[in-house]
Design brief:
Ferric Hydroxamate Uptake Protein, Chain A, domain 1; about 625 residues; about 5% helix; Immunoglobulin-like; eleven-stranded antiparallel β-sheet; mainly beta; five-stranded mixed β-sheet
Length: about 625
């Protein structure tokens, strides 16, 4: 049993601490949860307008912030939450200028310049933000964002926002039916485990593997906590050239923002349903035919996928305190086709059957046959015992085969059945936003998830485990997943030119790959038996309950990560500087009962011709060759 227990505290100063940005516009004041709006105010002749009042109002909550343009005519609003904003510029002697609707996305910088016209301040000139506003001329990050309305309307079988990140430029989509880290998920050539995920400004990346191996959404690389599309306001994928906020790894930088409440009460309810009664049967199952009573040999597996949920958001205290909550459940009972290799009736009786060089099937009764030895006249078992009684007892626990297309057709045959791959989960998210003053506000959110998924990796086809039936494959492996996450942030304008954003987060990543340890399956033995390996790994036969290391190993993770982040933005003349720090404490716990590349800690007795068995030539069928073509064994077998 191997354990890894790791604790670490780190303090990382962002690159911007030592690289003051000597720019006329703010480039780096956006973070993983916020954005920046900045610009320059001039008159019609191009002269700088200093001391102008610039007001920024978020439409859904009436949250406002105000600054004055400095001596360079510049204004900066840093660390603002994503949303739709109205910007107003006013100064005595000029008409008031307004941009009524500026859509601000996460982790982006917006440049909105104003040209004021001479006139009365009571007069209003409405300005439409042009395409150049969103052009990232001061940030080298390449990326794209998807907003909540698009997330809900785009087709998505998993209903997870992570599914869309591989649709961005420079990303590799997943290929084929098997979803793993080797067939997709890479961003700009970096390995999948180099992708970084953040939620509401805090890191939610898997710290043990990097891609979360149990994959609750089943879509490859994903964060430790689910991000259903109905819980996400928007997310942005940065593919190359991350700034200091995201420069923790070489892969993609994926930032999610939780939905929030507003002055309007809003909500939703949904139900997604898939039913096997609406599906056609598969060719494999139809091919096996029907029993005498007309029922299929292998019935169509159960599949009833129900994903349902509801959300609500609104004000607790209008213009000041807002709340949002969502619950999503999934009830997905289903079964999938599985196959194992079992002995034929003749092999169970101790009779080996092979084709000779002439193509004839020759039977060798291990107890009585005299076709062995160099001349084909010796007894195969001089003791007259034949099939080992312990092996016979093991094979008696196996069901009869029902699929002749598997196995060699002489000594082994396929057993096809269905086994559970059901998934049951519950997910909850909540968010609270509160405005203390126009200069200080708080936001916080939590996520809670519970899931149990059965996987047909380790099967009981012999009915040896309580509650199971011989001849009906049963999944005895389960994956409980129980992560949780909480984050809170306080953003304040200390002075008109000094903005501070502090965030705290705590995440717990808990999952367990539960398996049944190998146990004595034959009465009178004290160890699990495996004869001729496992068919899934190049062997010839399977046991009543899988005992191969890759099928029977147990491993689990219980990681706890605490993070504190602080970002300070300072505007001085035409210079905008940002410095920040990130402190993390990682408590990583990993347990497994195998040697990673070796055997399980539980004992398994393996009887395998590949390594442990040598048969005396006088007790085996003679080899074909020369003039020997009948009652002989082809060398290649």
């Amino acid at each position: 049993m191997n354990r890894i227990w790791f604790g670490q505290s780190s303090l990382k100063l962002l690159a911007s601490l030592v690289l003051p940005l000597v720019l006329t516009l703010s480039a780096w004041a956006q973070t993983a949860a916020t954005a920046t709006v900045s610009g320059i105010v001039t008159d019609e002749r191009g002269a700088i307008v200093a001391g102008a009042d610039v007001n920024l109002i978020e439409a859904s909550t009436n949250t406002s912030r105000s600054v004055k343009t400095n001596e360079e005519g510049q204004y900066v609003f840093s660390s603002i939450a994503p949303g739709v904003y109205k910007i107003t510029v006013s100064v005595q002697g000029f008409k008031q200028a307004t941009v009524p609707s500026l859509k601000v996305d996460v982790a982006k910088g917006y440049t909105v310049n104003f040209t004021l016209k001479v006139g009365e301040i009571a007069e209003v000139v409405e300005i439409t933000a042009g395409a150049g506003v969103e052009l990232q001329t001061v940030d080298a990050t390449v990326g794209n964002e998807i907003k909540g309305e698009q997330l809900v309307r785009l087709p998505n079988a998993t209903r997870s926002a992570v599914a869309f990140y591989t649709l961005q430029p420079l990303t590799m989509p997943y290929r084929g039916a098997q979803v793993n880290d080797n067939v997709g998920g890479q961003v700009a050539g970096a390995r999948t485990d180099q992708n970084t995920f953040s939620l509401d400004g805090a890191d939610i990346t898997d710290n043990t593997v990097g891609t979360h191996p149990v994959k609750p959404s089943g879509i490859g690389a994903e964060p430790i906590i689910p991000v259903p599309i109905d819980s996400i306001e928007m997310f942005r994928v940065g593919t190359t050239n991350p700034n200091a906020t995201f420069g923790r790894s070489s892969g993609g930088q994926v930032a999610f923002v939780t939905k929030r409440g507003s002055n309007d009460i809003h909500g939703s309810a949904y139900w997604y349903h898939q039913n096997d009664n609406l599906n056609a049967n598969t060719w494999d199952r139809n091919r096996l035919g029907r029993k005498s009573d007309g029922s299929p040999v292998v019935p169509e597996p159960e599949l009833k996928d129900n994903r349902f949920g509801f959300s609500a958001g609104g004000p607790i205290w209008k213009d000041r305190t807002f709340i949002f909550g969502l619950y999503e459940g999934r009830r997905f009972p289903r079964a999938v086709d599985v196959a194992r290799i079992v002995p034929t009736d003749s092999l169970r009786a101790g009779i080996l059957r092979f084709r000779d060089a002439s193509g004839n099937v020759v039977s060798y009764d291990l107890k009585t046959s005299t076709l062995c030895g160099p001349n084909g006249t010796d007894r195969c078992d001089p003791r007259g015992i034949g099939l080992n009684p312990v092996v016979k007892s093991l094979w008696d626990l196996l069901p009869a085969g029902n699929d002749a297309t598997l196995g060699d057709g002489l000594n082994t045959i396929g057993f096809r059945s269905t086994a559970s791959q059901s998934t049951f989960s519950d997910f909850a998210v909540g968010r609270l936003d509160h405005k203390f003053t126009d200069m200080w506000h708080f936001d916080g959110s939590f996520r809670w998830f519970r899931q149990t998924a059965f996987t047909p990796t380790q099967l009981d086809i012999g009915g040896l485990i309580k509650g199971n039936t011989k001849g009906q494959a049963a999944s005895v492996a389960a994956i409980p997943v129980k992560p949780s996450f909480v984050v809170g942030g306080l953003t304040g304008q200390i002075r008109p030119t000094l903005i501070n954003e502090t965030r705290f987060s705590y995440q717990r990543d808990w999952w367990w790959l539960t398996r049944v340890d190998p146990f004595p399956q034959v009465s009178g033995t004290n160890v699990a038996l495996q004869v001729a390996g496992s068919s899934l790994f190049g062997g010839l036969l399977d046991p009543p309950v899988d005992v191969h290391t890759q099928l029977a190993r147990t491993q689990g993770v219980n990681d706890k990560v605490t993070q504190i982040i602080d970002n300070l933005t300072w505007v001085k003349g035409s210079h905008t500087m940002q410095l920040g720090g990130s402190w993390r404490r990682l408590h990583l716990f990993h347990l497994r009962n195998d040697k990673v590349v070796g055997s399980l800690s539980a004992l398994v007795a393996e009887l395998d011709v590949a390594g442990a068995i040598t048969i005396n030539p006088s007790n085996r069928p003679r080899d074909c060759g020369g003039g020997v073509t009948r009652s002989s064994l082809i060398n290649s077998i």
